[in-house]
Structure formats: structure tokens, C-alpha cells
Amino acid sequence: MNQHLTVITGASRGLGLAMSRQLLAQSHVVVAIARKRTELPVPPGGELLGWSLDLAEPLAAARHLEDWLAKSEVTRWASVTLINNAGVVSPPGRCQARRVRTCRTPCAWASKRRCC
What is the pTM of this model? Predict the structure, then answer.
């Protein structure tokens, strides 16, 4: 039986948790990666592997996934999808008013120029 494997980072809450639930309901195998292990009820046909990994250490996480994939039967997967939902948002800093006033390009991102 070929199953769909989905690896989701940031799976312990919010959007990652919601996507994990939906994919499990569709009988996917979900590798849920988060700092805190994800635990969910698993409906028949689904499979959840909750891994407690900190993606601030990406090489350790990559090795863990690589080792697990090497041990799994490749023909088991109809598809493999990575949903990189983990994000690090640093606290906003103070705006330097002088730099903001000197910005004359209304859409610096669209013009691909850095103005400030």
C-alpha cells in the first residue's frame, strides 16, 4: 500500500497542528517536527510520528530525518512532501526615524533595491 508521507515543521501548534490533523484524517503518514512533541489522536489509516527536535540545530534534525528515511521502505511512499512551517520571529526593534525619512522608493521590495 502506497501512502503519502508529509513532514511538517512547527507542528505542535497553530497552522502546523491544524495541517497535521487534516493530513492524518486523509490517511497520510505525518512526521510532526517541533520543539515540543506533537501528540494527536490518529484516525484509522493515518500514522503520526511526533519528533521533538529544535530546528535551531538544523544538521541534527536533518540527520535524524535522513536516518529514519534510510530505514524506511522507499516503495511505501506514493509521495513525500515537506511543509516548512517553523518560523523564528525576532522581537521588533526600534525604528531609526532618520533612516525611514531618507527612504524615497515607495516600494523597495518590488524594485529589488534596498533603499533604507
Answer: 0.71
